[in-house]
Amino acid sequence: MPVFGTLVVVGPGLIGSSVLRRAKARGDLAQRLIAVDSSEQVCARVRELGIADEATTDITTAVAQADCVMLCVPVGAMGAVAATVVPAMKSGAVLTDVGSTKVSVIEAITPSLRADIAYVPAHPMAGTEFSGPDAGLANLFEDRWCLLTPLACTTAQSLHDIRSLWERCGARLREMTPSHHDRVCAIVSHLPHLLAFTICGTADHLAAETRSEVLDFAASGFRDFTRIAASDPIMWRDIFLANKTALLEMLGRFMEDAKAMGRAIEEDDTAYIVSRIEEGRAIRKSLQENRQA
Ligand SMILES: NC(=O)c1ccc[n+]([C@@H]2O[C@H](COP(=O)([O-])OP(=O)(O)OC[C@H]3O[C@@H](n4cnc5c(N)ncnc54)[C@H](O)[C@@H]3O)[C@@H](O)[C@H]2O)c1
Ligand SMILES: O=C(O)C(=O)C[C@]1(C(=O)O)C=C[C@@H](O)C=C1
Fold first, then answer.
1. Same domain? 121 vs 238
2. Which residue among 37, 140, 169, 184 has the greatest number of ligand 1 atoms within 8 angstroms of its CB, and so is best to mutate?
3. Are 106 and 137 contained in the same domain?
4. Are residues 169 and 138 in the same domain?
5. What is the pLDDT confidence band of residue 291, given thresholds at 50, 70 and 90?
6. 68-71 β-sheet, strand order
7. Listed residues 131, 149, 176: the one ending a domain
8. Which residues form the Prephenate/arogenate dehydrogenase domain (predicted)?
9. 88 and 186 share a domain?
10. What whole-number distance in Å separates Cα of residue 293 and Cα of residue 290?
């Protein structure tokens, strides 16, 4: 039995097209799949890939047919998209989103909400450095966490249905408050991206200044940073600005710890250096045991 009659995915990029692929592959997420994108090129590609029953730029006509609308656009676009989508939705339908930040997305969407539309904010903690409809994978969410931040306007039925949808995508589910979500993601996702973009920039500037070949020797350690540094600039600009408070708090904590490591190196404090490295190794091991690495 499908969770929804018609599921409309707005923004069938990496995340949206992964949901569509999973829905096509299983057949029990929704009876009918509609992809909506502001780009006609993206819609044409979705049609070629055959991952939706319909792909259109006509957002209001599409969402009027939806039992569930899933917003998969960059977090900075969520408010404007919701302002167009919500008035056109039919009574009793469910609105959900996959944004990487929750407080700002909820604040942006809330002014458009209606009493007869249930809203379930969600965030699948899975992705890659690639974007667009070609980047999606039917198994992207397998064994990954999907974080849900239910609100007063999240009915029990809508929460149950969105939980079922993500379970059928293979995800593990956890519920938390939006502000807790943003602090957690600031440290495990947003700060690592900030560090990756920064270290690549620093190495690149050094190479330019010294006209040297430093980057030619960027083999394994540095290469691992370059994977996430290849991520989409618009998506990450939006996330950094949307989660400013939590991200700056984590950046401050990180800078204190990095300075402490610097002092330990300066002072040949071997015990401190070893204990921090051992902490890092223990975290990697626990992720592996939890099948997250
Ligand atoms: N990439 C990840 O690793 C990841 C993981 C979890 C959640 N997210 C979140 O999912 C969302 C989508 O990320 P993605 O990586 O799939 O992005 P993406 O760039 O692959 O896809 C976004 C799509 O939205 C479309 N779009 C943009 N503005 C639009 C608008 N106003 N109306 C209609 N369509 C519009 C774009 O044309 C594009 O096709 C973001 O909110 C992001 O924070 C991303
Ligand atoms: O694996 C990656 O490349 C990702 O960037 C995925 C990642 C993450 O940082 O873990 C990125 C943003 C999301 O909101 C969720 C997942």
1. no
2. 37
3. yes
4. yes
5. confident
6. 54-56, 30-36, 4-10, 68-71, 94-97, 118-124, 145-148, 172-175
7. 176
8. 5-293
9. no
10. 8
pLDDT of residue 222: 87
Number of domains in the chain: 2
| Residue 91: Cβ within 10 Å count | 8
Distance CA 45, CA 220 (A): 34
Pocket probe mutation, ligand 2, options 97, 98, 100, max atoms within 8 Å of Cβ: 100
**Residue 35's pLDDT band (boundaries 50, 70, 90)?**
very high
Query: Do 131 and 64 fall into the same domain?
Result: yes
DSSP 90: P
In the listed set 176, 197, 215, which residue is the last one of a domain according to the structure?
176
Q: What is the DSSP letter of 96?
A: E
pLDDT tens digits for 114-135?
A: 999 999 999 999 999 999 999 9
- Domain holding 43, by residue range, is 4-176
Q: Using CA atoms, how far apart are residues 48 and 151, in angstroms rounded to an integer?
A: 38
- pLDDT of 218 strictly over 80: no
Q: Which ligand is nearest to the CA of 128?
A: 2
ipTM of the predicted assembly exceeds 0.90: yes
CATH assignment of the domain containing 136: 3.40.50.720
